[in-house]
Specification:
Elements (H helix, E strand, L loop, with lengths): L6 E7 L7 H12 L3 E9 L1 H36 L13 H20 L2 H4 L6 H9 L2 H6 L4 E8 L5 E5 L5 H7 L9 E3 L2 E5 L9 H6 L4 E6 L12 H29 L6 H8 L1 E6 L1 H4 L12 H22 L11 H6 L6
Parallel strand pairs: 1-2, 1-7, 2-3, 7-8
Antiparallel strand pairs: 3-4, 3-6, 5-6
């Protein structure tokens, strides 16, 4: 009987708030496949949360441990934000509460745009801190992780990306990566202040490829790279401003990879390795494109589970169609996808 060959790859996980539940589903499906080995994970914002839970769970309990940790983190996030949406809660799925929750979430969104988090949340309360500390053993992760982590945050002073490696990943690093400046005060690490990593790397591809040993990377995209409809309402405009802003760093990475691919004779060994790297894509944007901007802050358990199920199904289909190509050839041309036309030779 032939033994199935191991497929070694990296994962690059975009941020997107509650839409990151799609990525949870993707990771859950990949963990079910016994022949997939992950060398490095690059994550930003919600992608950083998923990355830390994935790596910590693997360390504590292997594949099943990673699946359990991811489920626990997302379950805790939902319970903290929408306890009434869970089965068994006396008011679960109450239509009146669902309407009230939507109105409150939109009201808080508008309020956060009008007031500084230093005024709106002077104690800087962030439920995610306790959830992460409860579910992820950061000390063990720093000392003995089988997966290389690359967590992106944005230095406020310069706007530059700071990529935190495995040995540096703490609860503050993950919170910094997910720190939306309209909701939370900047996170200070080593005397420097940081905001959401999506402003500068969403996610970082170059460092991940350069410092890992795998020859393939799967990008899990949850932010649509193209929206054909002209935004006209205020909510649509805000949504598209965020989409464009948080996709720009990724486009920059893709341009660099393409430049390395096209000019191998004129660049060094490290750059040639970037150009040879095989890219793959698990695309969640068809499921997130129609969602409103406020849904990124929607902790409703049904909503989160629905996205998780879509992520699982999308990853399962991707594995059936493209996993045999891992280790052999790329299955997506990111440059053509993001820039719409091939450069003239």
């Amino acid at each position: 009987m032939a033994i199935a060959r191991k497929k070694r790859l990296n994962l690059a996980l975009q941020g997107g708030g509650a839409h990151g539940a799609f990525t949870w589903g993707v990771l859950d499906a990949l963990l079910e496949h016994p022949n997939i080995e992950v060398d490095g994970v690059s994550g930003t914002s919600a992608g950083a949360v998923n990355a830390a839970a994935f790596a910590s769970g693997l360390l504590q309990g292997g594949r099943e441990g990673a699946r359990e940790c991811l489920h626990a983190v997302w379950n805790d996030i939902s319970r903290a934000g929408a306890p009434d949406s869970h089965p068994g809660h006396p008011m679960a799925y109450s239509p009146s509460l669902m309407i009230a929750s939507t109105v409150m979430r939109r009201g808080l969104s508008h309020l956060s745009n009008a007031m500084s988090p230093y005024d709106l949340n002077p104690l800087n309360i962030n439920p995610l801190r306790d959830i992460l500390l409860d579910r992820i053993d950061f000390e063990a992760l720093q000392q003995d992780s089988s997966v290389k982590l690359f967590i992106a945050a944005t230095e406020v002073a310069s706007g530059s990306a700071r990529i935190f490696r495995t040995g540096e990943v703490s609860v503050d690093v993950v919170l910094a990566s997910a720190c939306l400046p309209t909701l939370f005060a900047a996170v200070e690490i080593d005397g420097r202040s940081y905001w959401d990593g999506g402003f500068s790397a969403n996610p970082d591809l170059v460092t991940l490829i350069s410092e890992s040993t795998a020859g393939d990377t799967v990008l899990v995209q949850i932010n649509p790279d193209l929206d054909p409809d002209l935004p006209v309402s205020s909510d649509e405009i805000v949504k598209n401003i965020a989409r464009l802003s948080f996709n720009q760093p990724l486009r920059g990475n893709v341009e660099l990879l393409e430049a390395c691919r096209r000019r191998p004779a004129h660049i060094g060994r490290a750059a040639r390795r970037l150009g040879r790297h095989r890219m793959h894509l698990i695309d969640g944007s068809p499921h997130t494109l129609s969602l409103g901007a406020d849904t990124k802050g929607n902790p409703d358990w049904r909503f989160i589970n629905n996205l998780r199920d879509k992520g699982h199904a999308t990853a399962t289909q991707w594995m059936a169609e493209h996993l045999p190509n891992v280790g052999k050839q790329a299955t997506v041309d990111l440059y053509s996808r993001y820039f719409r036309e091939r450069p003239v030779a």
